[in-house]
From TrEMBL:
<dbReference type="InterPro" id="IPR036116">
    <property type="entry name" value="FN3_sf"/>
</dbReference>
<feature type="transmembrane region" description="Helical">
    <location>
        <begin position="110"/>
        <end position="132"/>
    </location>
</feature>
<dbReference type="InterPro" id="IPR003961">
    <property type="entry name" value="FN3_dom"/>
</dbReference>
<dbReference type="Pfam" id="PF00041">
    <property type="entry name" value="fn3"/>
</dbReference>
<protein>
    <submittedName>
        <fullName>Fibronectin type III domain-containing protein 9</fullName>
    </submittedName>
</protein>
<dbReference type="InterPro" id="IPR013783">
    <property type="entry name" value="Ig-like_fold"/>
</dbReference>
<keyword id="KW-1133">Transmembrane helix</keyword>
<keyword id="KW-0472">Membrane</keyword>
<feature type="domain" description="Fibronectin type-III">
    <location>
        <begin position="1"/>
        <end position="96"/>
    </location>
</feature>
<keyword id="KW-0812">Transmembrane</keyword>
Length: 222
């Protein structure tokens, strides 16, 4: 068939064959396999790793995704049958292209950078959330402590006020008892003077009470 292989690179190769007018099928079968030495001499179709079909209007096909520095065997047939030896060619791929190597490295570096950036963003978000949660909890505890202290202070003030009022009431009661023991009529007079509305009739002092009524200065003091 006059099959030739051209434009061989590390990953691709172009297979060219002459058109055959007697091809009964509507397509050509392009079969290729690496390490052709391991294949059987019968060239069975099942032994080929890949098989591509192209229309009979074409006379060339670019084989892709090859492995660099690898020997391949490629066969072209116009029928879905096992190829013969004159329908096959052997070729060896070249080293990987420097451009493809640089592109692969660039893509790998870009992928690593993107992955690292995403991980850093996730870690930063987790740390920020933890810090905010800790600050909110401390602030809540501080507010609760201030509220508890205010309640305790209010209770203490109320207790002190109640104790002071009770003490003052007891002191006044004791003072009134002492005064009543010394001057019984004076307490009644002082009560009447302080609360004139408590009685409707004027108070008439007896001679005995007049003797016990102290002077104005003493009355005011009492």
């Amino acid at each position: 068939m006059g099959i030739t292989v051209q434009n061989i690179t590390g990953t691709t190769a172009m297979v060219i064959w002459p058109k055959m007018a007697g091809c009964a099928d509507s397509f050509y079968s392009i079969m290729y396999h690496p390490n052709w030495n391991s294949m059987l001499s019968s060239y069975s179709r099942k032994s080929f790793q890949k098989e591509e079909r192209v229309p009979t209007s074409r006379s060339s096909f670019v084989v892709e995704n090859l492995t660099p520095l690898t020997t391949y065997i490629v066969c072209v047939t116009c029928q879905s049958a096992n190829p013969s030896s004159d329908q096959c060619r052997v070729f060896t791929t070249l080293e990987r292209d420097p451009a493809s190597v640089s592109n692969t490295k660039r893509e790998l570096a870009l992928g690593i950078w993107l992955t690292s950036s995403v991980l850093l963003l996730i870690i930063a978000a987790i740390l920020l959330y933890g810090c905010l949660h800790l600050l909110c909890r401390r602030r809540r505890e501080r507010l609760q402590g201030q509220n508890g202290t205010s309640k305790q202070d209010h209770g203490r003030v109320w207790t002190k006020s109640a104790a002071y009022a009770s003490e003052e009431l007891g002191r006044q009661s004791q003072l009134m008892q002492d005064t009543e023991e010394k001057h019984p009529g004076t307490i009644q007079l002082a009560t009447i003077i302080e609360n004139p509305s408590a009685i409707k009739e004027p108070v008439t002092l007896t001679s005995k009470s007049r003797e016990r009524v102290p002077v104005t200065g003493q009355c005011s003091a009492i």
